[in-house]
Amino acid sequence: MKKLLIIVSLFMTSILGFANVKPLDVDVTEGAKLPNFELRDFQGKYTKSKKLFGDGKPTLFIFAAEWCPYCQRELSAVQKFYEENKDNINVVVVFTRRKTNLSATKKYVEDSKFTFPVYYDATNTLMTAFKVKTVPYNLIIQNSRIQKDLGGSKNYEELKEAFYLNY
């Protein structure tokens, strides 16, 4: 009986030790390196952040919500920006689950005919890790490093200016 208790105790200790995973925390200051994490698309498929942010191209990284009027206005500009620059600039939009659900977000993206890559923060992990208080929230990331915090809502001209595309 004593041996069984010792074995069970060791087993539980090892399981609890592995369960104590540190939550994702991102330093969003310019020049900070991103930790590795995964983004989940609308179909539940996960993509590693390194794949999205480590390919050498600058990335416009946006947190948004389908119910947010500022996001709606910005995402229309983002679509135009994406269509014109997708060969040279990545665009990644993460939709929050705050005040909504996946079905409503999917419908909004489909109805809006957005073609840029979209992801869904089903557990609010990314919003918390990036310390996002309001949406939209925009960052420029390159080679898995924060290049610039663009803050809130941007129009088409401001997006071009942020990436030095004044042509």
From TrEMBL:
Ranges of residues in domain Thioredoxin: 28-167
Signal peptide (residue range): 1-19
CDD domains (UniProt xref): TlpA_like_family
Pfam families: AhpC-TSA
Keywords carried by this UniProt record: Signal
Protein origin, superkingdom: Bacteria
UniProt cross-references to InterPro entries, sorted A to Z: AhpC/TSA (IPR000866), Thioredoxin-like_sf (IPR036249), Thioredoxin_domain (IPR013766), Thioredoxin_ResA/DsbE_sf (IPR050553)
Official protein name in the record: Antioxidant, AhpC/TSA family
PANTHER family: PROTEIN DIPZ (PTHR42852:SF13), THIOL:DISULFIDE INTERCHANGE PROTEIN DSBE (PTHR42852)
